[in-house]
Amino acid sequence: MNTITLNVANRIIESALDRGRELNLKPLSVAVLDAGGHLIAFQKQDGSSMLRFEIAFGKAYGALAVGSGSRWLNAAAAERVHFVQALSGVSGGKIVPVPGGVLIRGEAGETLGAVGISGDTSDNDEICAAHAVEQVGLAADKG
């Protein structure tokens, strides 16, 4: 596989939402992007608050922008404030530098896309994202 199909994206979303229900998390919103940062699929659970699409998208987009899961961006935001501010500026404010954005890697380690989740704590969002990617037989890079 060298790209993420709509079918795979929807399976990732369903798996992430299932995991969130298993863990009794707050309502989740899940965005799956291709390697170029284009949205493939998005779903939000009933009761999700506003801006959850933008946050989930921004976590995934940020992971793609730096080639590492958004956990890396979270650390960079504390250590390299100017870098993350510049990244936000050049991306038009699209990047959300907190955990919950996970790169989706193929068998050879190539980047196929990313999944971003928002709704619960960033750590729980990341747990669901990584779980969902692994459930479809791909590798999750949390950063």
Automatic annotation (TrEMBL):
Annotated transmembrane regions: none
One Pfam family, short name: HbpS-like
InterPro entries listed in its UniProt record: GlcG_carb_metab_protein, PduO/GlcC-like, PduO/GlcC-like_sf
Superkingdom field: Bacteria
Record's signal peptide: none
Chain coiled-coil ranges: none
Name the UniProt record assigns to this protein: Heme-binding protein
Record lineage: Bacteria, Pseudomonadati, Pseudomonadota, Alphaproteobacteria, Hyphomicrobiales
